[in-house]
Write a structure and sequence with these properties.
single chain, about 60 residues, mainly alpha, about 80% helix
Length: about 60
């Protein structure tokens, strides 16, 4: 795995964990951890797709 990809994944997962542990997400996302994990996975996949499209547009 490329170091930037690993760093991005590490950042995302630790940021999410911190927000969850400090109860900063429950009011917005609810308490159902399974449902939230699905929402977060979909969101992360969407961010990846958007980043790929942006990079494709920047290439010559």
């Amino acid at each position: 795995m490329e170091p930037p990809v690993a760093a991005a994944g590490w950042s995302f997962s630790h940021g999410f964990a911190t927000l969850w542990l400090t109860a900063n997400l429950q009011d917005t996302l609810g308490e159902d951890q399974v449902a939230i994990s699905k929402q977060v996975r979909r969101g992360l996949a969407t961010l990846g797709e958007l980043a790929r499209r942006q990079l494709d547009q920047e290439l010559p």
